[in-house]
Amino acid sequence: MTSRADTLGVRCVDPGQRTEVAGLVAAAFHDLPQSVWLVPEPRDRPAVLAAVFELAVTHAVQHGWVPVVRDDDGLLVGAAVWVPSTAPDIDDHDTRLATAAGSSLPRWRAFELLQHAHHPLAAHHYLALLAVHPDRQRQGWGTRLLTWAADELGPPAYLEAATPELVRTYRRFGFQESPPFRLPAGPPTWPMWRVI
Q1: Out of 3.30.450.40, 3.40.350.10, 3.40.630.30, 3.50.50.60, which CATH number does the structure's domain 8-194 have?
Q2: Which end of the chain is more exposed for a tag (fewer CB within 10 A), N or C?
Q3: Model confidence over 34-81: pLDDT tens digits?
Q4: Phi, psi angles (nearest 5°) of residue 190
């Protein structure tokens, strides 16, 4: 019998694909306002984003789920990074973040503090990252990943949306936004919560 995941073309990655997934997320997130604030120098941004995101991907592979979608040629076009709120913290997080973030470390720390301050206290699944390759956006790949999560993980779920457009996208999947928090002299980010 064909499963819903098979129909959607969604598969969870294995540990050997962490770098590939982190690179995809870095490419998709390169021009987001938060990424520009976190790593202002465009030349440094791809490597720093990929290194920091690989920490999150590795953590989710170990303790959560990293569903991905590929096109007919096998190219990775979309990925999501889900972690249950009950997961342990990333091992040696501060040291590893410092290595990955380099000179942008103070900005990453400020962002993480704001994220933690807005996380719900109730148990939930956290969508840390959702990315679609820049050349393949608005083609339904992200919808496949969100549909998989609705089927496999269910509510409650929490995420932070980076732009008003993304807020509208996540509303279609039952997420409701709270007032945004704002990075110091930077862009707003919208906490979003789905309970049904």
Answers
A1: 3.40.630.30
A2: N
A3: 999 999 999 999 999 999 999 999 999 999 999 999 999 999 999 999
A4: -105, 115
